[in-house]
Design brief:
Strand content: 15-25%
Number of domains: 2
Helix content: 25-40%
CATH architecture of the largest domain: 3-Layer(aba) Sandwich
CATH class of the largest domain: Alpha Beta
CATH topology of the largest domain: Rossmann fold
Radius of gyration: 25 Å
Oligomer: single chain
Shape: elongated
CATH superfamily of the largest domain: CoaB-like
Number of helices: 15
Strand order of the largest sheet: 12-11-8-13-16-17-18-19
Distance between the termini: 35 Å
Number of strands: 19
Length: 423
């Protein structure tokens, strides 16, 4: 899980009487590590499972319970949530879910939920039968209609001994959904974005291949940053990551030809666009607003591929002392893609610092793209590292994105990329 900078953000975490409550400690700790100011509110049932002292030790803030509520301070169900950037209830029992959907507020946690002025985030955790009850399912549908974010539970062996749906979602999924509720912005929200990543693999035979040292980390960071900003992301990569949010639509490919095929399809779909909710809800809007899609080409595509890839394993006894491996040129995917109607940003990694800028400017013009992210490889930001430094180059100007973690660089990159959409 990639921790995101949440400095100066206030997050309220509600916990209910579920055996999964111990996992809430990990969630709270993740928010704390991200720099957020975290407050915990506990239902009466939650107190049977864990002491408020645990959360107070983690957050360094007083926990709100029925007994600790204080109207001479901000530790009450009104003041605590009014200025919160996010309110997530994890774990949320079936009882809590059903009551919130009906507007019932008969305990301190439900008081807070009813008083919170923004959409709630709820991560259910319950026995399978209770979870699948038509009452609970009806409540979940009602909550979704009212813009409550439901983090779907997992299917696994539950504490009650039943194997089925009802286990609390992964902490990373709850974390990312909460961060997204804080960071998403109108520019990127629902905008279709395609990201390519990783180094393509060109098979020589069934055990050998030609590739490069690209780790795919920058593309993964971009996909995550876009997701957190609210974009509708399609990631086409050779380096699939199991740590990315499950909501990021990911296509795993291998060769340059396969990547080209999938990117053509993804770009075509992205160009269909998505109607802005603002235009639908605004009676004075003229026509329909469609957000222009973006393409981030962060993949390191192999320049050549074997001319005659073989099945099985080629034996050295058959090949002899020397092996003349014939290669043919791969298509230039970025050059050949139909870029009309999509804002395109290329990526270029260079080793020669003296020629890097000129090579990037040349690629910007020859490939007819809107911008290029130049990465001059050094020891601290080489292939596979967790840091990067980028010079963002357009036809008008250059912007340095200083050395930082790849997720922070990705977030900064999205800020400067917004300038490319003049519509």
């Amino acid at each position: 899980m990639e921790l995101i900078n949440l400095k100066d953000k206030k997050i309220v975490v509600g916990v209910t009487g579920s055996i999964a409550i111990y996992k809430a400690c990990e969630l709270v700790r993740s928010f704390i590590k991200s720099g957020a100011n975290v407050f915990v509110v506990m239902s009466d049932s939650a107190l049977k499972f864990i002491s408020p002292l645990t959360f107070e030790a983690l957050t360094r803030n007083k926990v709100l319970t029925k007994e600790s509520e204080d109207w001479t301070t901000t530790l009450n169900h009104i003041d605590l949530v009014q200025d919160a950037d996010a309110f997530v209830i994890a774990p949320a029992t079936a009882n809590t879910i059903n009551k919130i959907s009906k507007g019932i507020a008969d305990n301190i946690l439900l008081n807070c939920a009813l008083a919170y002025p923004k959409p709630l985030i709820i991560a259910p955790a319950a026995n399978t039968v209770m979870m699948q009850s038509h009452y609970t399912q009806g409540s979940i549908k009602m909550l979704k209609v009212n813009d409550v974010e439901i983090i779907e539970p997992q299917e696994k062996l539950l504490a009650c001994g039943i194997k089925g749906e009802g286990a609390l979602a992964e902490i990373s999924d709850i974390y990312y959904a909460t961060v997204k509720s804080i960071l998403q912005e109108n520019f990127w929200k629902d905008r279709k974005v395609v990201v390519s990543g990783g180094g393509t693999i060109e098979r020589v035979d069934d055990v050998r291949f030609i590739s490069n040292f690209s780790s795919g980390k920058m593309a993964n960071a971009l996909a995550l940053a876009l997701y957190l900003k609210g974009a509708d992301v399609c990631l086409v990569t050779t380096k699939k990551s199991n740590t990315l949010p499950k909501d990021i639509y990911t296509l795993e490919v291998e060769s340059a030809l396969e990547m080209q095929e999938y990117l053509n399809d993804c770009v075509r779909v992205a160009k269909k666009g998505k109607v802005s909710k603002a235009s639908l809800n605004n009676p004075n809007a003229i026509g329909v607003i469609r957000k222009k899609p973006f393409l981030f080409m962060a993949a390191a595509v192999s320049d050549y591929r074997p001319k005659f890839p073989q099945s099985g394993k080629l034996k050295k006894d058959t090949l002899g002392d020397e092996w003349d491996l014939q290669l043919i040129k791969n298509p230039d995917i970025l050059q050949e893609l139909n870029k009309e109607g999509i804002i395109t940003i290329g990526f270029k990694a260079e080793k020669d610092e003296n020629k890097a800028f000129d090579n990037a400017k040349k690629a910007l013009n020859e490939k007819n793209i809107d911008a290029i992210a130049l990465n001059i490889l050094k020891k601290e930001n080489n292939f596979g590292s967790d840091k990067n430094e980028i010079i963002f180059i357009t036809k008008e100007k250059e912007t340095l994105l200083p050395l930082d973690s790849k997720i922070n660089v990705a977030l900064e990159l999205l800020e400067v990329a917004k300038e490319l959409d003049n519509e």
